[in-house]
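Dear H.,

Thanks for agreeing to be a second pair of eyes. The structure we're designing against is below in token form, covering all 171 positions.
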């Protein structure tokens, strides 16, 4: 089933994308660059994907939903907590200390968990889920960068191919 997107941002110019990469200090994977150039975020339809997380038994696969993919606004990749909530800049400002600089937040899952794209290192190009419910609210976010990380897909394109109308878990 083809994936469509609603509430996408304005199309990005190549120069905007270059400035985002310069700010992040990494070249974005080609499949993700094409996505933000064409759609610039938005809510996918269909939105469900299979995911193994500790909340379920080890042999269980839960189905979660992508609430939205982050838009890139005029702030580009500069953290800004006054930006709209569904933008890269807001997500970096609000949650940037909760994950390694090898990742960039590309969306939200089940309205509260982060979808991360590895942009550096051995995991480059892979999509990961940051399950925020596993974080200790009394501990520093900086000390919990690897807590609640689950690999979702080998690439952004692979994640899009997994999206379906399946039975999503409402958590």
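And this is the sequence the design step returned. I haven't edited it by hand at all.
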């Amino acid at each position: 089933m083809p994936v469509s997107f609603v509430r996408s941002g304005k199309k990005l110019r190549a120069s905007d994308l270059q400035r985002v990469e310069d700010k992040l200090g990494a070249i974005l994977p080609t499949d993700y660059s094409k996505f933000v150039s064409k759609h610039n975020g938005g809510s996918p339809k269909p939105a469900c994907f299979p995911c193994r997380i500790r909340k379920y038994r080890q042999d269980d696969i839960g189905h979660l939903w992508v609430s939205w993919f982050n838009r890139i606004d005029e702030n580009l990749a500069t953290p800004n907590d006054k930006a709209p909530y569904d933008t890269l800049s807001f997500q970096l400002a609000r949650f940037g200390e909760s994950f390694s600089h090898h990742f960039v937040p590309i969306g939200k899952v089940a309205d509260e968990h982060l979808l991360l794209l590895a942009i550096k290192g051995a995991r480059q190009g892979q999509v990961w889920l940051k399950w925020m419910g596993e974080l200790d609210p009394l501990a520093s976010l900086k000390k919990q960068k690897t807590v609640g990380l689950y690999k979702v897909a080998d690439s952004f394109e692979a994640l899009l191919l997994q999206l379906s109308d399946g039975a999503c878990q409402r958590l």
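Two observations from my side: The beta strands are 4-6, 43-45, 48-51, 62-69, 103-109, 113-118, 127-130, 149-153. The CA atoms of residues 80 and 90 lie 5 Å apart.

Warmly,
E.
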